């Protein structure tokens, strides 16, 4: 095959040059690239206002008054008439001791009283005779004085024996333990057949005078509480069952193990569902000083520190500002430093922003 080289003529070069100039002219007239669109964000204008928080603690319902019933004398328990959970009324029999010794004591005291009364009658008769004889001059003053002393001794002896009989009868009565007020048995300390000492707890009674919600409160929370706080108490398992309460008693000394203070909250007209031993939740509103709160969604991180995005109202751009977080919960964040009243804070879309970015406020006039 015959290969021939095509020579570049001047006319062809001129044509190529003109075509290149046309292309360059077309490039010079292209429109500039469009500016990036402003990102829509939700914002809030912050202001200082009084702050506070709700503190919730768990506790139990207890009787306002709990008493330990015990025998006043020693003895062997022959009967316990109640068990834990029983309701009792005033003067109801709780337990009984063996009565034999006390019954013997009563019989002996009665015999002593009879003997003392007989001696007293004889002394009175002798005194009367000596008095009449002294008036008639048929006895001496010495015998009269002796009859007087004998009468006084007999009277004292009769009083003493009567007092011993009363004590013996009281001891006999002490062999029966009875409730002094209506209530519920919450604990028992002895069983029939046991020999008990005076003062040992036989049963514990929760009186029906009132109900307390008892909480173990840390020291820092106790110090934050107002002077006369009002507590809202609800059943943990049934939050709809609610009662109001007032602090009735605060332990003066912390528990040696937990370091908490026991606080008793008197319940005002508690519902029947708040039974003894029920687990309850107490809520207390603790007021704080003035501060700035923002939604938790506004919080982000800049240079390993908490920060929020601030909108410049004039330029509609954002900048990252570090803040000090005082308190954080799932819904709100309390800011200590970094924000002032009137700052516009981005609350939604914070993860997609960059410093100096244009934004469009949702709901605002464009």
Automatic annotation (TrEMBL):
Keywords: Coiled coil, Signal. InterPro entries: MdtA-like_C, MdtA-like_HH, RND_pump_MFP. This is Efflux RND transporter periplasmic adaptor subunit. PROSITE patterns: PROKAR_LIPOPROTEIN. Gene3D superfamilies: 2.40.30.170, 2.40.420.20, 2.40.50.100, Helix hairpin bin. Residues 1-25 form the signal peptide. It holds the Pfam family RND-MFP_C. Belongs to the membrane fusion protein (MFP) (TC 8.A.1) family. The keyword ATP-binding does not apply. It comes from Teichococcus aerophilus. Residues 144-171 form a coiled coil. Residues 294-351 form the Multidrug resistance protein MdtA-like C-terminal permuted SH3 domain.
């Amino acid at each position: 095959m015959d290969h021939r080289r095509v020579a570049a003529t001047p006319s062809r070069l001129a044509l190529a040059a003109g075509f290149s100039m046309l292309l360059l002219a077309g490039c010079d007239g292209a429109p500039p690239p469009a500016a990036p669109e402003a990102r829509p964000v939700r914002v809030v204008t912050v202001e200082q206002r009084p702050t506070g928080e709700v503190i919730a603690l768990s506790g139990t319902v207890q009787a306002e008054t709990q008493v330990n019933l015990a025998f006043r004398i020693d003895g062997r328990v022959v009967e316990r008439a109640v068990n834990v959970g029983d309701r009792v009324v005033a003067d109801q029999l709780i337990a009984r001791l063996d009565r034999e010794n006390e019954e013997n004591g009563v019989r002996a005291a009665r015999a002593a009283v009879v003997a003392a009364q007989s001696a007293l009658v004889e002394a009175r008769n002798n005194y009367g005779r000596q008095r009449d004889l002294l008036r008639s001059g048929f006895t001496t003053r010495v015998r009269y004085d002796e009859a007087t002393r004998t009468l006084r001794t007999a009277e004292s002896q009769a009083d003493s024996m009567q007092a011993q009989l009363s004590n013996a009868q009281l001891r006999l009565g002490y062999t029966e333990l009875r409730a002094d007020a209506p209530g519920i048995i919450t604990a028992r300390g002895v069983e029939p057949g046991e020999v008990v000492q005076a003062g040992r707890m036989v049963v514990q009674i929760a009186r029906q005078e009132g109900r307390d919600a008892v909480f173990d409160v840390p020291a820092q929370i106790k110090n934050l509480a107002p002077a006369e706080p009002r507590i809202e108490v609800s059943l943990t398992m049934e939050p709809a069952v609610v009662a109001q309460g007032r602090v009735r008693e605060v332990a003066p000394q912390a528990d040696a193990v937990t370091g908490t203070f026991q606080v008793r909250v008197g319940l005002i007209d508690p519902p029947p569902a708040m039974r003894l031993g029920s687990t309850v939740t107490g809520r207390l509103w603790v007021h704080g000083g003035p501060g700035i709160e923002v939604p938790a969604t506004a919080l982000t991180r800049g240079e390993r520190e908490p920060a929020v995005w601030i909108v410049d109202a004039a330029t509609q751009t954002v900048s990252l500002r570090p803040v000090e977080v005082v308190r954080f919960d799932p819904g709100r964040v309390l800011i200590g430093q970094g924000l002032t009243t009137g700052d516009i804070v981005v609350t939604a879309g914070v993860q997609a922003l960059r410093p100096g970015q244009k934004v469009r406020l949702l709901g605002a006039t464009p």
